[in-house]
Amino acid sequence: MRMHIDHVTIAGPDLNALRDSFAAAGLATDYGGPHSNGVTHMALLGFDDGAYIELISTIKPAGQTAPWWQAAIAGSSGSCGWAVRVSDVGAETKRLRSEGVTVVGPMHMTRDRPDGRVVQWDIAFPGEGGIAHAGATLPFFICDRTPRDWRVRPSASAAEAPLTGVQRVVIGVRDLDASVRLFRRLYLLSEPRVGDHEPWHARLAMFDDSPVVLASPRDAHSWLGRRLQEFGELPCAYLLATNNFDAARETYALNELHEWFGQRIAWFEPGALRGTRLGVVRRNARPRV
Predict the structure, then answer these.
(1) Is 174 inside any structural domain?
(2) Predicted TM-score (pTM) of this structure
(3) Residues 134 and 244 in one domain
(4) Within this chain, do residues 59 and 26 fall inside the same structural domain, yes or no?
(5) 163-222 pLDDT tens trace
(6) What letter would DSSP give residue 216?
(7) What does the longest C-alpha to C-alpha distance in the chain come to?
(8) Is the dihedral of CA 207, 208, 212, 214 positive or negative?
């Protein structure tokens, strides 16, 4: 079944600091306002394909406990969760429960935009971690009650840029084979391409018919191994789409290049984005056999 990325989330202890880092890298975000929980607030970078990057933190940089991604926010994990769009949250909840998956929800949520407009949506959280670890491995899913362009629209910084959307979510996992089986069973996916990626000291599984890439460390002392020890299984990188790979490299001064299954990936410097690993890949590029 087709999975449509709604948004990907990046967490840190200070939203303004996150926004400043992304703006300095050429990825200026729009302030989105506080969530209905009264604890977290967010900024977003919207793309032409309707997906967006969400930057999230607590409203007060210290002294608040977030209902979601608390460890990720406090520990400045960067990437931490992802969501897919569905047409019926209740139906998707029922489907996953029939497959033996624990799901928290559906529930109704809101966010107050700076212009006073109240954005509303329905949402549910699969997996044992529930809302506290939303989208850590399996994506949480969302459906708008209010018009979608109330929740997200293309950001000014993306309008003239060579980036067009969010193409892939890379999830750090301990057991690659078990995770492959889980995604194939729940989302009826084909066999992924599997191979070693030496720069990460990791083994990757990339699905042709899904935006998911699974990454499992071969070395417990690698950055991915250490990340799994600190934060557990959750997204470890995101790949943004471009229609002009060379222009994107030039625009954002992306000097680090990797190749995954024949696809070229150019990376932002993680230190410039407070540890977030953000790459760029040609839109809808397919892995090479």
Answers:
(1) yes
(2) 0.95
(3) no
(4) yes
(5) 999 999 999 999 999 999 999 999 999 999 999 999 999 999 999 999 999 999 999 999
(6) E
(7) 51
(8) positive
